[in-house]
Specification:
It is elongated and about 45 Å long. The protein is 0% helix and 43% strand. It is an all-beta fold. The protein starts with a strand and ends with a strand. It contains no helices and seven strands. It has a four-stranded antiparallel sheet, with no helix packed on it. Strands 1-2-5 form a three-stranded mixed sheet, with no helix packed on it.
């Protein structure tokens, strides 16, 4: 029996101001099944580009097999994605939902702006 679960994540609370990284309090998923994530926005990001802006996007990962990459929002420090995606939860006692915030670069590797990890327990 699969019980869908919905998880609302406001990245503006975790990715604001200067570069951030680390973990946050645990989030209760309740049951194994599907987690629906609504990626809303981030606020007051650091400027990673010379023009005083960033071109941010988010990579969300759950375990090794589940990955979602958001659209790139160009030239902003306050991106709004308003994207929804789902992950299958197989073992909520061990899985970690990780969000990486990056700045898209035309040349070279993309710049990391921060990350957050949420235990699904």
């Amino acid at each position: 029996l699969v019980h869908p679960q919905r998880l609302h994540i406001a990245l503006d609370e975790w990715f604001s101001g200067a570069q951030s990284q680390g973990t946050t309090p645990e989030i209760e998923a309740g049951h194994c099944g599907v987690i629906t994530v609504h990626l809303r926005r981030a606020r007051n990001l650091i400027a990673a580009d010379r023009d005083g802006f960033s071109d941010p996007y988010v990579v969300a990962m759950l375990g090794g097999d589940n990955t979602y990459r958001s659209n790139v929002i160009k030239k902003t420090l306050d991106p709004e994605w308003d994207e929804t995606f789902q992950f299958m939860i197989h073992d909520p006692t061990t899985e970690i939902l990780r969000f990486e915030l990056l700045d898209k670069d035309v040349v070279g590797a993309d710049d990391p702006l921060g990350f957050v990890e949420l235990p699904v327990e």
